[in-house]
Amino acid sequence: MNAGSSQTITRTSHESETESVAGQFADQLGPGSFVALIGPLGAGKSVFARAVGRRVGVTAAMPSPTYTLLAVHQGRCPIYHMDLYRIGSLAELEHAALHTYFESDGICLVEWAERARSLWPKSGWCVTLHADDEQSRTITIERFGGGAK
Hints:
By secondary structure, the chain is an alpha/beta fold. It contains three helices and seven strands.
């Protein structure tokens, strides 16, 4: 993956390849990184997030936080893994103050991040996953804004 590129599109044919792409991507992340994970149900957002977590040293299980909204894991820095699927409105998200983690001391991985687009930080990454079939995925990784992370 080219760190200087503003957008990378990768096609994978198996979950292990998606995990490999996520692991390589994770090497670019550090404290203060925001990653929006976009895609329909079953596209692989949680698979991608878990692979990022493993690459940055998370050893515990990383299930999707669909019902808890936020799970905090420790790797080389804190990992804030969110799932906004069950958020009913932007006001609900603001009330829960989850957006305060978007620019935090760790890596913030947000599934269904498009539901909070107006609250995204000025810079970060947008990872869009599309299920081409049961195993194949198209993964688009795009940098937005400026900054080092």
